[in-house]
Amino acid sequence: MERDWDNLLIFDACRADMFEAVLGTDQFDSYDRIKSLGENSPNWIRRNFNGGTYDDTIYVVANPWTEVLDPGTFFEVVDVFANIDRYEDRLPEDHPDWEELGTVPASLVNDVAQDLHERYPEKRLVVHFFQPHNPVIGASDGSIDIDESLEPRFNLIDGDITTEDIWEGYSRNLRYVFHHARELISDINGKTAITADHGELLGEVLWPIPVRGYAHPNGVFHPNLVTVPWAVVEGERRTVTGGEVSRENLAADEERLRNLGYLS
Asked: Taking the CB of residue 51, how many other CB atoms lie within 10 A of it?
């Protein structure tokens, strides 16, 4: 939150090496690798935001872990995941029933973020997409193209898929979310930074216990899990002002989280 940006776009579960391999770095005004404070989303939210008051910032989030966010942290928190039913009329035409999809499409996150920017042009925006995190739903042109959901840990352990399969699925989702992120950047003013909450383990050997790591487990700080991109797109800066923070903290109910596979 102390870095210099007007818009902070979060790609969920995006390793720096994947970002660089799939999207390259030359198209950005500046690029660096940074170390994430979190090895998974809830810890990333806690360590970056909790304990602070950011009355000049709106948090638009498609990740289901807003329940760990302290109320009163932001000017406003718009939890698209928890309130998906409010937006059913704005889902893309090539999109099936959203619970069948199992995630929040990037186009919807864009729409919500743009609406909030129009309402509050003097606020900074944190826009937390849920891709490239599985399930694989996207094509590089931004359309919905559903593949079988990839659970990196169990599918790799069971031998149903290979690391290359996982990489290809995440690459598809990364191109998909970047298509929409690029549209958002062109539609709103300001200096934009693209980063990730955490990376993804694809069977790397951990230490000191020599076991293989998968997905983004709690308490594991392997470099591929906490090394994330920081890509900057310069733009016309805007004046940012504070205001009264929201005390509302809407979170997805446990039944919905279980139905979508986010809780056991």
From this structure: 9
CA–CA separation, 69 vs 105, rounded Å? 22
Cβ–Cβ under 8 Å, residues 123 and 5: no
Q: What is the DSSP letter of 198?
A: -
Is residue 264 scored above 60 in pLDDT? no
User: Are 190 and 7 in contact, with CB atoms under 8 Å apart?
Assistant: yes
Integer CA distances (angstroms), 125 to 55, 77, 98, 176, 259, in order: 11, 10, 25, 21, 30
Residue with tokens 């990740």: 63
Closest to 94 (Cα-Cα) out of 143, 140, 139: 143
pLDDT in tens, 81-94: 988 888 878 877 76
Give pLDDT tens digits for 123-151: 999 999 999 999 999 999 999 888 876 77
* In contact, 43 and 61? CB cutoff 8 Å: no
Global confidence as pTM: 0.90
CATH 1.10.1670.40 fits 7-259, yes or no: no
pLDDT band at 218 (very low <50, low <70, confident <90, very high): confident
Give per-residue burial for 160-197: e unless 16+ CB within 10 Å, then b.
Answer: ebeeebbbebbbbbbbbbbbbbbebbeebebbbbbbbb
Placement of tokens 């020599």 in the chain: 210
Region 4-8: what's the mean pLDDT?
98
